[in-house]
Amino acid sequence: MEEVTVTLPTKTYQIKIANGLLNTIGTEVAALWQPRKIAVISDRQVAPLCADQVLTSLKAAGFEPHLYLVEAGEASKSLGVASSLYDELVGDGFTRTDGVIALGGGVVGDLAGFVASTYMRGLAFIQIPTSLLAQVDSSVGGKTAVDLPSGKNLVGTFYQPDLVAVDPTTLKTLSQRYLVEGYAEILKMAAIDKPEFWQIIEKIDQPAAIMTYASELIKASVTFKAKVVIADEQEGGLRQILNFGHTMGHAIELLAAGALAHGEAISIGMVQLTKLFEAYQLSPVGLTQQLTTALQKVGLPTESDLIGSQAFYENMRHDKKNRHGKLNLVYLKAIGEPVIYPVQLNELETFFSGQAIITK
Ligand SMILES: NC(=O)c1ccc[n+]([C@@H]2O[C@H](COP(=O)([O-])OP(=O)(O)OC[C@H]3O[C@@H](n4cnc5c(N)ncnc54)[C@H](O)[C@@H]3O)[C@@H](O)[C@H]2O)c1
Ligand SMILES: O=C(O)C(=O)C[C@@H](O)[C@H](O)[C@H](O)COP(=O)(O)O
Ligand SMILES: [Zn+2]
C-alpha cells in the first residue's frame, strides 16, 4: 500500500493507494469512523461495477450503508441533484453523526463532497475515486462543487475528506476516452511540477501507455497535488497553479455543452493559453509544440472553434481566480515553472486577441 499524507491546519488525512483496496474498504473506514449510517453516492454507470463490493465490505465492518444513484455525467453536478440527495438523506433519517462516501469519478466526488459539506452543516466524508481523473486530481484537496448554467463549479466549498481510498484496479473498466481525459490533468501537473515528473510524460507515446505507467502517474500526481494543497489549502495564492489551462478550459467546456469532457477542454486550454504566452514572449519558443505533441500522442484535442466569442469572454470572467478586477492566469515560464499573471478584466479581450502591450 502506498500512502501520501495531507497535513492541514484543521485536519490530517491519508491518500491510500492499493490494488484491491475496495475489498477491504470497510476495515479502512472502521479505523476512522464509529458504526454509523453511510450514504454511498455513486452514478448509474459506476455502481453496477463496484458498489456491491463496497457495500458488502462496509456491512461486514458494522456499518449501515445506503446507496444513492445519480445519472452519469456533468449534468448531475447541479443544485437540483444535490437537493434531491438532501431529500433522500432526510427521508432515510441521516443525522450529523452519519457519513457520506463518494464512489465514482470527479462528478460524483464533487457532488457528494458538496452534499456532505452542506447537509446539516457537514457530515464526515470519504472519497473512493474510480476514474483516472478522480484518482489523480479531484479526490484530493477538498474542492467540492456544483455547476450553475453560467459557469463551472460556481457553488461549492472547501471540505476535506477523512480518507481518499484509491484502488487502481477500478480503471480496468474505464473507457479509453475517460482514461485519456484523466491523463490531461496528469500532464497539467507534470507541466507545473519539477521536471522529473515531465520525464514520465515523455514515456507516454500512446493511450495504452497510460495504463502501463498508471501507478507511477497516480503516485506522482497525488504527491504533487498534496504538496500544493498543504501549502495553500484555500487557493489564496500558490494553489492557483493547479488551474493551469482552466481559465480557457472551463469556458470551452461550458460552451461545448457536454460535447467535451473536462480533461479534453483543459487540454485545449493549456495549449491555447501557452500559444498566447509564447506569442507574448513570456513562454519559451517551442513550448506550445511540446505540450501539443504530448497531448496529441494520446489523442487529446488541442484546438477549438469555441474560442473568441462574446460568451467565451463572459465565461472567463466568472473564473474563481478573478480577484479585485483582475483575472489571474497561469502560464509556464518553462516546464516546472508556473507563473501567476494578472490581467485587468477590462483588458481581457485585448489580451486574449494577442494585441496587448506587454512590459516585462
Ligand atoms: N474537485 C477537484 O479538485 C476537481 C479536479 C478535477 C476535476 N474536477 C471535476 O471532475 C469532473 C470530471 O471527472 P471525471 O472525468 O471523472 O468525470 P465523470 O465523473 O463524469 O466520469 C467519467 C465517466 O466515467 C465513468 N466511470 C467512472 N469510473 C469508472 C470506472 N471505474 N469504470 C467505468 N466507468 C467509470 C463515469 O460514470 C462517467 O461516465 C468535472 O466535473 C470536473 O470539474 C474536480
Ligand atoms: O484542486 C484545484 O485547486 C484545481 O484547480 C484542480 C482542477 O483540476 C479542478 O478542475 C478544479 O475543480 C478547478 O477548480 P475551480 O476553482 O477552477 O472551479
Ligand atoms: Zn481540472
Automatic annotation (TrEMBL):
Binding site for Zn(2+): E185, H246, H262
Catalysed reactions, as listed in the record: 7-phospho-2-dehydro-3-deoxy-D-arabino-heptonate = 3-dehydroquinate + phosphate
Main localization (coarse): cytoplasm
Cell location: Cytoplasm
The protein's annotated pathway: Metabolic intermediate biosynthesis; chorismate biosynthesis; chorismate from D-erythrose 4-phosphate and phosphoenolpyruvate: step 2/7
Gene Ontology, cellular component aspect: cytoplasm
EC number: 4.2.3.4
Cofactor dependency: Zn(2+); Co(2+); NAD(+)
Pfam families associated with the record: DHQ_synthase, DHQS_C
UniProt keyword Amino-acid biosynthesis present: yes
Coiled coil: none
Gene Ontology BP term (one): chorismate biosynthetic process
Any one GO molecular-function label of the UniProt entry: nucleotide binding
Binding locations of NAD(+): G106, V107, V108, G109, D110, T130, S131, K143, K152, T170, L171, K172, T173
UniProt cross-references to InterPro entries, sorted A to Z: Dehydroquinate_synthase (IPR050071), DHQ_synth_AroB (IPR016037), DHQ_synth_fam (IPR030963), DHQS/DOIS_N (IPR030960), DHQS_C (IPR056179)
3-dehydroquinate synthase N-terminal domain segment(s): 69-179
Record keyword Cytoplasm present: yes
Cofactor annotation comment: Binds 1 divalent metal cation per subunit. Can use either Co(2+) or Zn(2+).
Domain 3-dehydroquinate synthase C-terminal: 182-322
Highest taxon listed in the record's lineage: Bacteria
Similarity remark: Belongs to the sugar phosphate cyclases superfamily. Dehydroquinate synthase family.
Function summary: Catalyzes the conversion of 3-deoxy-D-arabino-heptulosonate 7-phosphate (DAHP) to dehydroquinate (DHQ).
Protein's name in the database: 3-dehydroquinate synthase
Lineage, highest ranks first: Bacteria, Bacillati, Bacillota, Bacilli, Lactobacillales
Name of the gene this protein is made from: aroB
